[in-house]
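Re: that chain you flagged

S.,

Sorry for the slow reply, it's been a week of failed gels. I finally had a moment to sit down with the sequence you sent. For the record, here it is as I used it:
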Amino acid sequence: MLQKQILNTENAPAAIGPYNQAVKAGGTLYVSGQIPLIPETMELVNTGVADETHQVLRNVQAILEHAGYTLDDVVKASIFIADMADFATINEVYSQYFQQNQPARECVAVKTLPKNVNVEISVIAWKAE
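Prediction finished late last night. Pasting the structure tokens below so you have them in one place:
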């Protein structure tokens, strides 16, 4: 029987709602959407969309590592942005983290994101158990 395992780490921002940082089911890890919160202070990075994207991906990476996964294990990424004009900048930063064997993904502009941030990213990772 497939059981789910709840995963949370102090190396990524604590959940700001009724959810967990990640849930593992079998070899699949579902990482909740991350925004540019600094884990130690829970303050937002607000020095531009490139810096926000780096922080978001560092948060994603910390959760993956806590669960025993890497960015290479990511099979799907979902990117939510507040302004499609930021797409090129976000994509440039994203490509620094996913350099080869990039996951499938979508990028959608939304009206508003939590705490009025410019970018949020969630991922699904998989590896054989």
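What I noticed first: The helical segments are 49-66, 87-97.

Talk soon,
D.
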